[in-house]
Amino acid sequence: MERGGPDGGDGGRGGSVILQGDRHEDSLLRLFYGPEVLAADGQPGRGQQMHGRNAPDLILNVPCGTSVFDADTDAQVCDILFHGQQVVLAAGGAGGRGNVHWKSATHQAPTEHTPGEAGQEFRLRLELKTIADAGLVGFPNAGKSSLLAAISDAHPKVGAYPFTTLNPVIGTAVYPDFSQIRIADIPGLVAGAHQGTGLGVDFLRHLARARVLIFVVDAAGADGRTPWEDLRVLRQELRAYDPALLKRPSLLVANKLDLPAAAANLARLEKSARRKAIAVSTVTGQGLPDLLARLKELIKPVAAGAVQPARPSRSARAPAAAPPDDSGQDLVTEDKLRHASFFDFGRDK
Questions:
Q1: Which domain CATH number covers 200?
Q2: pTM of the model
Q3: Inside any domain, residue 34
Q4: What percentage of the chain has pLDDT greater than the value 70?
Q5: C-alpha pair distances (Å), 169 with each of 32, 133, 241
Q6: Is residue 120, in this structure, part of any structural domain at all?
């Protein structure tokens, strides 16, 4: 103003795009159908030196276990591992400066101003990997779903045909001291899974976060295969996908011991595997207490009332090494994307 002097206020900051872990989310479908994500612009400044309103941050809830990668370099950006964890993926830009900053004794009616800064923009790839303490690995129809139902309070679909489990299912085994172990039923693997046969790659990546692997084989050979050959193929597929998986602690479970042929196959299975198998039957309950006890020895879950480590509520855009979600809730975690998809994150221009 010629007589009143400059009074243009600064513009508001643009909103940031924030990823937040949510135990109630079970897939990335929401982002699949809305891949371009934009936070709002800040409001412009006004007369009488009024500062523009800052735009609210855009918070995107994703399942615990979501990994974020740069779509161009494939470098990992962050891991969302537990409920409430927040990561700023794209920070909003600062608002522009109003003409009041150029006021001086010799420049009493300035019209200068600066535009607002552009917010960060990234092209990212999101991938969901199931979070569990232990993962059940086996061929279709090996009895993994029945085993999970027998040792936890999960209720997976059980049927006398292959591929009854099409998405990972998590159950929680609760011990007398109220400590808990989360066990994931990974859909059945077949030969060639590491190359995508039977959607194997989608299934195999859900083992990435499991601390212990539980190899489940049909000791009775009900589908015409032998348990020792099943174990060989399972280990071969894991080695081809990620050799580091075979370095993790593991248990060998010989299932279906209630069938006559199982007992005869058990000795040869142990000889071929060069290790002792835990013989179980989900029908009679044989071996289930031993399996739970062995699993507890390996996982060492924290008993109820023990002090839990503190968790940060928000982290920067960098790989996170946070503890996994241990809420104890039973989740049916479905990665319906099947293949990793691309998502664009940024701020309105």
A1: 3.40.50.300
A2: 0.60
A3: yes
A4: 69
A5: 21, 13, 21
A6: yes
